[in-house]
Amino acid sequence: MESVNMHEAKTRLSQLVARAQQGEGFIIAKAGKPLVRVTAIDSPEPGQQKRIGFLAGQLSIPDDFDRMGEDEIADMFGG
Question: Which ranges does the record mark as transmembrane (predicted)?
């Protein structure tokens, strides 16, 4: 996570907020000491992951997936 000093954050606030909206949080520091973490409102809490449904609509499973390669597997086990 990028760390920016207070003056730089004031100068680049619009750019930093746009990046935070895209999921790239940042830390604002004063005199090198981290003060606050800035993230998008809908981003997951630290240590929490958004996992459920993250590939929704991106995968398709064939109807016969449970029978795929059954002949080869049977041959390997002498069936």
Answer: none
Taking the CA atoms of 36, 39, 44 and 47 in sequence, report the sign of the dihedral they define.
Answer: negative
Task: Judge whether residue 33 has pLDDT over 90.
Answer: yes
Could you tell me how far CA 75 lies from the centroid of its own chain?
42
Q: Which DSSP letter does residue 43 get?
A: S
pLDDT tens per residue across span 15-26 = 999 998 888 889
Q: What is the CATH number of the domain that holds 28?
A: 3.40.1620.10
Please give the residue range of the domain that contains residue 60: 2-42+52-76
